[in-house]
Write a structure and sequence with these properties.
54% of the residues lie in helices and 9% in strands. With 465 residues, it is of the alpha+beta class. It has two domains: 3-183, Beta-Lactamase; 210-420, Hypothetical protein af1432 (Orthogonal Bundle). α1 runs antiparallel to α2 (33-46), α8 (235-246) crosses α12 (294-300) and α13 (321-336) runs antiparallel to α14. The protein is rod-shaped, with a radius of gyration of 36 Å. It starts with a helix and ends with a helix.
Length: 465
């Protein structure tokens, strides 16, 4: 029994196992094909015990070049400097050229076979006397060859070649997986870019239809993103909220333009019609396969914590966080912008409004984040495309403040601020004017008697009555 050979075979087996382990890990963590190929060569040298490992890519030009794309170990600089081909010529890289041409493993012992002189000379100078070349395939095509060199003449017996073939197969599988992953990522990037363009087109279509909404959705999106960042939400969550904000008023495309752009008083049926834009937006978006609940965000962006919002009267955490953020951004942008029926109310009034509604209508954490942002320089530029101060020419028509105030609003001169009433407060006052009792109003509006009384109390204080 050759004890020395047995020990050497055991050493190789352990080294090969470790090389497979490192190779498997490399496939999982590799971010690029170049990284994968380099790590696989490293595994064969550091764990497999080979002095040199390299991967040559077979190029299909007229010269049929074998180009080194990865190498590790002694003599790597020599390998990277040499020029080889896989065609039949004086430069043929012996075993590697055969492996690429035949798609089968090939072994070269330099002392027994003087062919492939460039590699033979370089190898002997590094005390390397043999190599094995294993074809590497990507799909059904030969990509090139994995070449492993040794300082031993008989290093590559049948068993060792079988092991190296398995390693090359693992490398091929890793390359297939990485390329498929790259293709998927590229495809997803294209889909995401197309989705962004579609969202932008939808928003632009609404803006072209109604000049009063020009820039509103983009402004609300910008503020919503800033609020999300202040709340330390993930970039993925923020991107979804941005999409929701960019489309939050898309349902207004269903509302008659003369109502959306009306400069004077809105009667209750008109307000109720405008309110349908949240459900209309949901209907438009619900079948689009977003990564986020964009359609539901649009549906819920007029819901309020206390259940006084629309269309479903949701309360508290039943309202999506994205919708709660958009709701605050929508109010702030609306009050800082001009409306056909009033001048811009300014930043201070907008912040006061969400502060009053903190914990009642609006999520306290969202309000706090918005107030923190408002104290920084450039807040008006963030909220508005052109920083709207009272008296500027920036016109818009949006919700919460617009829909909820317009019932009692008359066209106002610049700098004149009408009383700020919510939609329900305005509706309650109209029903009072029609002679209905508190109980009748509660039944008609499907709210409690105590809510009606609270609306009346707040309204009288607001109006100074």
């Amino acid at each position: 029994m050759n004890i020395g050979a047995s020990v050497e075979n055991k050493r190789r087996s352990i080294g090969t196992f470790r090389a497979f382990t490192d190779g498997s890990a490399a496939i999982v963590r590799a971010a690029s094909e170049a990284e994968l190929l380099s790590d696989m060569c490293r595994a064969l040298v550091e764990k497999g015990g080979y002095p040199l490992a390299c991967i040559l890519r077979a190029e299909n030009g007229t010269e049929q070049t074998l180009r080194p794309v990865a190498s590790f170990g002694i003599g790597r600089s020599v390998v990277e400097a040499l020029n080889f081909t896989w065609g039949v010529s004086e430069k043929t890289f012996g075993s590697c050229g055969i492996a690429v041409r035949t798609a089968r493993p090939a072994v070269q012992n330099y002392s027994a076979n003087p062919s492939g002189s460039p590699w033979r000379s370089a190898g002997l100078n590094q005390n390397l006397v043999s190599n094995a070349a294993i074809p590497v395939k990507v799909g059904a095509t030969v990509f090139g060859a994995l070449v492993v060199a040794s300082a031993e003449t008989g290093a590559f017996d049948t068993e060792e070649i079988e092991v190296l073939v398995e390693f090359a197969d693992m490398l091929s599988s890793g390359m297939d997986m990485l390329r498929a992953r790259t293709e998927r990522e590229t495809f997803c990037q294209v889909v995401e870019e197309n989705l962004k363009n579609t969202v932008q087109a939808l928003g632009t279509a609404l803006e072209y239809r109604d000049p009063f909404t020009a820039g509103h959705q983009r402004n609300v999106a910008a503020l919503s993103v800033a609020i999300g960042q202040e709340m330390n939400l993930s970039s993925h969550e923020i991107e979804g909220i941005r999409f929701g904000a960019l489309l939050h008023d898309i349902g207004k495309i269903k509302i008659p333009l003369d109502i959306c752009s009306k400069a004077g008083r809105l009667i209750l049926p008109e307000i109720q019609l405008i309110q349908t834009h949240a459900e209309a937006g949901y209907a438009i978006l619900k079948n689009i396969d977003f990564q986020w609940p964009v359609a539901s965000m649009v549906l819920q962006h007029h819901e309020r914590l206390d259940g006084s919002g629309y269309p479903q009267g949701l309360k508290g955490d039943a309202i999506l966080l994205g919708s709660r953020i958009i709701a605050v951004a929508d109010v702030v942008e609306a009050m800082m912008s001009h409306r056909p029926y009033r001048a811009a109310l300014g930043q201070s009034a907008a912040i006061d409004e969400i502060q009053r509604g903190r914990g009642l209508h609006f999520d306290p954490s969202v309000v706090d984040a918005c107030i923190t942002i408002s104290r920084r320089p450039g807040f008006a530029r963030l909220v508005l495309e052109s920083a709207a101060e009272p008296g500027s020419a920036f016109l818009d028509e949006t919700d919460t403040q617009s829909d909820e105030l317009r019932q009692g609003a008359e066209p106002s001169a610049h700098g004149t601020n009408p009383p700020r009433l919510t939609l329900q407060q305005s509706a309650v006052m109209q029903l009072v004017a029609e002679g209905k009792s508190v109980k009748e109003i509660a039944r008609y509006m499907n709210i409690s008697v105590s809510t009606v009384k609270a609306h009346l109390s707040i309204t009288y204080k607001t109006l100074g009555a």
